[in-house]
Design goal:
Oligomer: single chain
Number of helices: 11
Order of helices and strands: EHEHEHEHEHEHHHHHH
Number of domains: 2
Strand order of the largest sheet: 2-1-3-4-5-6
CATH topology of the largest domain: Rossmann fold
Radius of gyration: 18 Å
Strand content: 5-15%
CATH class of the largest domain: Alpha Beta
Structural class: alpha/beta
Number of strands: 6
Helix content: 40-55%
Shape: globular
Length: 218
């Protein structure tokens, strides 16, 4: 059973989400918060596996709440509920350790899939959110000129980074590259050490900021 916490200031949307999500027998909504302060308190009280976090909330917003929760409970997954035009907030949430981003108008079936995949360890980005963030980094005035060769990244490692950005699990990456899951885990560890990042989320952000994505996606 996946324990889920909802953080959304609009009561109607919050209650609607609760009803929809609890239709799935694998999900249990253990609490509902109307702001970031309540989300932090409920995270400590209810120990959820994952939080659906709205960005714009009174008192403490979803960005700051994500930071506080990740600092205190790094094992709790946080998926940001967002809308178009929130690129700056998305960037901040990524820096604070958010595990995924979905648009508020996402279909109920899709959001359930996002929740389950995130709990499994995948970083999930709605395609439109990903494209907008990628475009922002690509249009940045100051672009780092980082090359894979300068980072001592192999072709295999670049392929793995691409698959991680796509949200693939270690098992799926192994199947795509005909390698064992254990071997994939070892290679990812080497990549993190080379780039001096601590997890897949930071790896994705690094790839975006340093224009590795353009090279990877070609």
């Amino acid at each position: 059973m996946i324990k889920l916490l909802l953080a959304e200031d609009q009561r109607v949307l919050r209650e609607s989400l609760k009803i929809v999500l609890e239709q799935d027998p694998e999900l249990q909504v253990v609490g509902c918060a109307a702001n970031g302060t309540e989300a932090l308190a409920l995270a400590e009280e209810k120990a959820p596996d994952i939080i659906l976090m709205d960005i714009k909330m009174p008192a403490v917003d979803g960005i700051e709440s994500t930071r506080l929760i990740k600092e205190k409970f790094p094992h709790i997954k946080v998926v940001i509920l967002t809308t178009f035009g929130n690129e700056d907030n998305i960037e901040k949430a990524l820096a604070y350790g958010a595990d995924g981003f979905v648009l508020k108008d996402i279909d109920p079936e899709e959001i359930i899939t996002v929740i389950k995949n995130t709990v499994k360890g995948l970083q999930v980005f709605h395609r439109n959110v990903y494209n907008k963030v990628r475009k922002k980094f690509s249009n940045s005035i100051q672009k780092p000129n980082v090359k894979a060769a300068d980072l001592n990244l192999t072709e295999r490692e670049l392929k793995i980074i691409r698959l991680i950005v796509q949200g693939k699990s270690n098992k799926e990456i192994g199947e795509a590259l005909f390698l064992s899951e254990t071997r994939i885990k070892s290679i990812i560890g080497n990549i993190l050490n080379k780039l001096r990042v601590k997890d897949r989320t930071q790896l994705a952000v690094y790839a975006l900021k340093n224009n590795l994505i353009d090279n990877i996606m070609q």
